[in-house]
Amino acid sequence: MNKTVALIAGASLAVIATPAFAQTANDVPFSGVRVGGEVGYDHLRSGSSEDVDTSRDLKQSIDGVEYGAVVGYDLPVSENVRIGAEASYAGSSASWDNNNGVPNTFNLGRVSASRDIYVGGRIGYVVTPKTMIYAKAGYTNQRFGIQGTDGTTSLSQRLDTDGYRLGAGVEYAVSPNAYIGAEYRYSNYSKGEIDFNGDTPDSSRFNLDTDRHQVVMTAGVRF
User: Fold this and answer.
1) Residue 15 DSSP symbol
2) Using CA atoms, how far apart are residues 169 and 180, in angstroms rounded to an integer?
């Protein structure tokens, strides 16, 4: 699955980069290639459709700081409308550790959010010469680090999950070639597999239900 994700991300980056020479941000506001960073609040929690405990509605959560890099391309289709594609690679400090206390729902000693890959599209509307609002949607692949123990032996593995992301935000052009912004996004991960270390084959894919809410600040440059 990791090879598939890499191919999707690579193909998307090629698509958004190819038209970059046709227009620049100096020609039309909020258009052309953009490269930036993001940082903000990250909240993940178990959903309700898949629960390992049928006698209780357990919804545990982890919180942290999300940080990452994004590259994209926005194309003007009218005076005010922009369509674009983007890809991002991010990390998170969100984690949970039972500190030798009562194990969590999944009987794990530790769960931590690792890297996140996102590939998607967005549509924007320029409300003023320096302000654009937009909505986005796409595919997201989140990796979690998990650690389990039977009291004697501890094992660390990776859990790869697939899902979709929806979001909305606003961008403000501080100059023709620089922007800042804010964005809210919701992600849901519905499929997962254990990525074992070494030569052990990955597990079969299984259903899960994990919700994610993020509020991030963005900043970057356009070319």
Assistant:
1) H
2) 11
CA dihedral of residues 1, 90, 74, 162 (deg, nearest 10): 30
Q: What is the pLDDT of residues 99-120, one digit of tens each?
A: 544 444 444 456 788 899 999 9
Residue whose C-alpha is closest to residue 114's, from 138, 93, 98: 93
**pLDDT: is 143 or 198 the higher one?**
143
For residue 3, pLDDT over 80 is answered with: no
Question: Could you say which DSSP state residue 98 is in?
Answer: -
Residue 8: the pLDDT is 44
Q: Please write the tens of the pLDDT for every residue from 25-53.
A: 457 899 999 999 999 999 988 776 554 55
Pick from 113, 107, 183: which is nearest to 142 by CA?
Answer: 113
Tokens of 189: 């991960």
Q: Are strands 95-97 and 131-149 parallel, antiparallel or unpaired?
A: unpaired
Residue 219's alpha-carbon distances to 81, 83, 162, 178, 215, in angstroms, are: 21, 19, 27, 8, 14
Residue length of the chain: 223
3-state secondary structure of 77: coil
DSSP 204: P
Q: Do the beta carbons of residue 35 and residue 220 sit within 8 Å?
A: yes
**pTM (2 d.p.):** 0.77
